[in-house]
Amino acid sequence: MPRTLALLALALLAPHARADDWPQWMGPNRDGVWAESGVVKTLPSGDPKRGNRVAPVWSVPVHAGYSGPAVADGRVYVTDRVLAKGARNSDDPFDISEKVESTERVLCFDAKTGKELWKHEYPCPYQISYPAGPRCTPTVAGGKVYALGAMGDLYCLDAKTGKELWAKNFPKDYAAKVPLWGYCSHPLVHQNLVICVGGGASAVAVAFDKDTGAEKWKALPTRDPGYAPPAVVRAGGVDQLVVWHGHAVNGLDPLTGKVHWNVPCEPRYAMSVMAPRQHGDRLFAAGIGGAGVVLKLHADKPAVTAVWQEAADKDMGRRPKDRGLYPVNMTPLIVGGIVYGVDQPGMLRAVDLETGKKLWFTHKPVIGREEPEDYKGAGSGTAFLVKNGDRYFLFAETGELVIAKLSAKEYTEVSRAKLLEPTGTAFGRKVVWSHPAFANKCVYARNDKELACFSLAE
User: Fold this and answer.
1) CA 336: distance to chain centroid?
2) Can you say whether residue 453 is alpha, beta or left, with left for phi > 0 and alpha for psi between -120 and 50 degrees?
3) What is the pLDDT of residue 212?
4) How far apart are CA 55 and CA 411, in angstroms?
5) Phi-psi region at 319: left, alpha or beta (left = phi > 0; alpha = psi -120 to 50)
6) Using H for helix, E for strand and C for coil, what is the string for 126-155?
7) What angle do CA 367, 338, 404 make, to 5 degrees?
8) Are 144 and 210 in contact (CB under 8 A)?
9) How big, in percent rounded to 5, are the helix, strand and coil portions of the chain?
10) CB–CB of 147/164 below 8 Å?
11) Three-class SS of residue 365?
């Protein structure tokens, strides 16, 4: 056999390492699963000259934002905010008395080198709490980028050139009141539609033709749109769009906006943040103050029945609930009937989905050390979870990446490495609150000063 044919035969017989994109928030299927193989078993050591941070493949300067990067077709997309000359944010993150002049940007970089390929920018004065920058990860689909800014600017851009194809402004087009913490619901592309939570009080969910921007439907009147991303689940023989606004979890026909069902679920401050998660015929949503619900999805029609439910406490949930977990700004994963997520007090917790029974907790993957369950110094603590095979990658608010094993019995930490400095401020501590992207056997992560690529190739 000629040598070239022999090599080809060996290549065909050898197991192939996957090379997937991360084209939107929480990955290709918005489920927090990273399917690539050939990934490191333990994380690389940090460089003492860099403050024990891992050396990146590349790093580029960016401005502030909570939005994560998206990776598609060899390019990285991220959004940020540039303060106008002489402008500054208030020292009080809850002070929204004045508009702060600034510019929002959608940036595109080469995924291998970090070279800037294009940028799209537009004036965008901010008047929201925690005004660092945009919240939504860009969604890349069909050669287009859909980017939603913190003040309600939705842009559809050509993914290769950055050319503006169409745009919406929710406050102007829908008489929408900007939520206290800005627009946070990552745009969802479903078939020929891009679906957003951002309309006005008459209809907070809006679907547009993904190519032309023409409105196709709008639904769900409510005074508080909330912050949760829309999700599509399959149940009752049909696709169902699940929208959790500030007062209820709702099931809709994603193609028409017809409302199938509605279950009240009101977190404190209308802070519906996590995307409702499906596990078999169960649907889970929970948030700040101890508001949460597990729903049974009917098999024969688009309808639900409550399995268990908790209402928010008036004291913001400072007295822990006997069951469940209530994330503030992350979306949990559900594996094997166990919910893994960061609970409101700031610890990673595991609970049984069916009963809400608490199984274990640990602060270490969130704030870098163990603390007792009643510890008060990690409120709204954040770590973003991604599953890779039988392991989990957790990006902590400390700027550290952690590899761990999670089970119903325990948390087992395998490896930890510092990627970025925490540059944001929350409740007296420094934090990074941005979901990274995992693609090309790399992790792409950002803070308020840089976007960096780190190799995780074995």
Assistant:
1) 22
2) beta
3) 98
4) 27
5) beta
6) ECCCCCCCCCCCCEEECCEEEEECCCCEEE
7) 40
8) yes
9) 5, 40, 50
10) no
11) helix
Query: How far is 344 from 358, CA to CA, in rounded Å?
Result: 14
Domain made up of 65-183: CATH architecture: Beta Barrel (2.40)
Residue 419 CA to residue 24 CA, distance in Å, equals 21
The secondary structure of 374-415, three-state, reads CCCCCCCCCEEEEEECCEEEEEECCCEEEEEEECCCCEEEEE
Token pair for 147: 């980017």
350: which strand partners?
Answer: 340, 360
* Sequence letter at residue 259: V
pLDDT per residue as tens digits for the range 46-98:
888 888 899 999 999 999 999 999 999 999 999 999 999 999 999 999 999 99
pLDDT at 51: 84
Mean pLDDT of 340-369: 97
pLDDT for 164 beyond 90: yes
C-beta of residue 19 within 8 angstroms of C-beta of residue 441: yes
Order of strands across the sheet that contains 144-148: 139-141, 144-148, 153-158, 164-169
Please state, in angstroms and rounded to a whole number, the distance separating the CA atoms of residues 194 and 208.
5
What's the rounded Cα separation, in Å, for the pair 162 and 121? 10
pLDDT computed for residue 48 by the predictor: 86
The whole-angstrom separation of Cα 202 and Cα 217 is 12
Tell me if residue 264 falls in helix, strand or coil: strand
Q: Which tokens is 376 given?
A: 């008060």
Measured distance CA(350)–CA(353) in Å, rounded: 9
Q: Which helix (H) or strand (E) holds 80?
A: strand 75-83
**H helix or E strand, kind and range, residue 15:** none
- The residues spanned by each domain of the chain are 65-183
Both tokens assigned to 392: 């989990």
Burial of 120 (0-12, 13-18, 19+ CB in 10 A): buried
Query: Which CA distances in Å does 328 have to 249, 285, 299, 342, 455?
Result: 16, 11, 31, 8, 30
Antiparallel, parallel or unpaired: β 282-287 and 291-297: antiparallel
- DSSP of 23-68: -STTTTTTSSB----SB-SSPPPPBGGGTTBPPPSEEEE--B-SPP
Residue 434 is which amino acid?
A: S
- Per the CB < 8 A criterion, the answer to whether 310 and 365 are in contact is no
Q: Is 118 exposed, middle or buried (0-12, 13-18, 19+ CB in 10 A)?
A: middle
Residue 126 token pair: 């901010």
The amino acid occupying position 94 is F
Is 85 within 8 Å of 155 (Cβ atoms)?
no
Query: Is the Cβ–Cβ distance between 437 and 70 less than 8 Å?
Result: yes
Angle at the Cα of 130 from the Cα atoms of 125 and 136, rounded to 5 degrees: 75
